[in-house]
Structures are given as structure tokens and as C-alpha cells.
Amino acid sequence: MYIINADDYGISEENNLAILEASKFGILNSTSVMVNTPYCNYEILQQLLDNENFRVGLHLNIFEFNTLKKDLKQNSKLYDKNGEYHNSFGAVLKKSFDKEFLEELEGDYRLQIEEALKHFKPQHIDSHVHMHAIPNIFKIVCKLAKEYDIPYVRTQFEKPYLIPDLKMFSKTNLINLIKVCLLSTFTIGNQKEAKKYGLKTNDYIVGVQYTSNMDSNTLYYGYKANSKKDKLTEALLHPTQNQDKKDNYKEYLALLDKDLMSKLKALSLR
């Protein structure tokens, strides 16, 4: 069983259009929406929502763009004086033991959920740059998902894998491998936390090790390494129609690869 999800709906108009096209003419069956950006086009999103076989979820974001909070907090630990986020994963991990920071983060996440609910009912929750995978933040997200009746929260267990392509081998950098190990370790506890709240989640993920380099070949071998019969694998991609962003444009082309669909179906029956 598999989900092929496009992260970052709303990050740019080119991304929105790529997601729409891949949902109509390709293998994409899910997306995650950033509601705190000026490019979150709800007219295009409605076309995705009209497809009953397509999943639409919420992409929680404290990495970039602005808070939805109207009255900005002075000396915020979450955003700058203009309300703009500038949070790296490492900085958030460090602050995730700070009670005041977590309370502020929960407030911002709540605002994003409530903004989404004005336009659609999220079927799942994940986050920009995997911030919600941090254990103390994952607990907050599970609590909010239960409160707002959102049934599914993403986790990030990915087995490292190699591709028989020297060019792609060079894209396996040390930082991404460290990220895979860290997120997979967090997932062991996070999956238990999701179960405690009665939430659904995936068993495996594909797209961390080769983030933004998920062409057809990478997606196939990633799924081959991270799938088992009766287990749910979620692949994440960041497609765009902007050809200047070559790696992300390749992801868009991968989502239009009809042959890949039959290959993934065959793998899911192993």
C-alpha cells in the first residue's frame, strides 16, 4: 500500500500547478497544504478537493513565511519582530525542551489548523522540514490531531538505500543520512505516541535520503527498499513546473510517469 504525497502546496504558484497536473494526469494521490503563505491558492486547491480519491492534508510550517497570529508577541521564541519564521530544524530541536516555546508553537499550529478548516477538512498532518517529528512537538501534534478529528499523522522511518546510478549516488550526502537516522530513531517513539491517541500513520517513508531528488528511478528503488505487503509506505516529493529548479522539475516529471505506477503496484503485492 502506498501514498505518493506532494509536500509544500502553497509555496509557489508553479508548485501548485505541478501538483494539480500530477493529480490529473500522473500518479500523485495526496498533497499537504501550507496555509501561511501568499501563494496558497484555494481555487486550484478546490479542484484537488473535488477528486474523492485524492488526499489533502495540512503541512504545518514554522520554518518560513509568517505567523498567522494577529497580535505579535514581543520577544517571541518562534518568529521575528515582523512575525516571520526563521527556524532551522536544529534550533527547534534544541528549543523543544523549553515549555514556553512549546506553548507558543502549539498556539501557532492551532491557528494553522483552524485556518485550514475554513477551507477544507485535513485528512492528514505533516510538516515543513519534518519539524513535527521532534518528539515533544510530535506529542503536541497528536493532541491537536485528536482534538480536531484529523485521523493521520506522518512518521519518518526510512531504510537507507542505494540506486544503480552513479549520478544519484553522489546525491547521498552525509547530512541527509544523519537526518534519516535521526528521524527513523524518533519514529520508534512517535509511532507509539500516535497509536496512543488512536491515530493512523505510515509504516515507512521514502524521500528523506534523496530529498528533492526523487526522480522515477529513485522513487522506485526507495519504494522497493521501504515496502512490505500490508504495510503503508508514504513517498514525499516537492514537484514544480519551474524548469529552472531542475531537481524539483524532475520530481514533477516522475509523477507523470505512468509506467512507474504499475511498477509500484507490483511491489505492493510482494
Task: Describe the structure using short key phrases.
single chain, 270 residues, alpha/beta, TIM Barrel, 6-stranded parallel β-sheet, 10 helices
Molecular structure report:
With 270 residues, the protein is an alpha/beta fold. The protein has a single domain, classed as Alpha-Beta Barrel (TIM Barrel), CATH 3.20.20.370. Strand 5, helix 8 and strand 6 form a beta-alpha-beta unit. Helix 1 runs parallel beside helix 2, helix 4 runs parallel beside helix 5 and helix 5 packs across helix 7. The longest helix is centred in the C-terminal third of the chain and has 23 residues. The radius of gyration is 18 Å and the shape is globular. The relative contact order is 0.15.
In a nutshell, what does this entry contain?
The protein is α/β, with parallel strands linked by helices and 270 residues long. The protein has helices at residues 13-25, 42-49, 89-95, 99-117, 135-147, 166-169, 174-196, 216-225, 246-255, 258-268; strands at residues 2-9, 30-33, 55-60, 125-127, 204-206, 233-237.
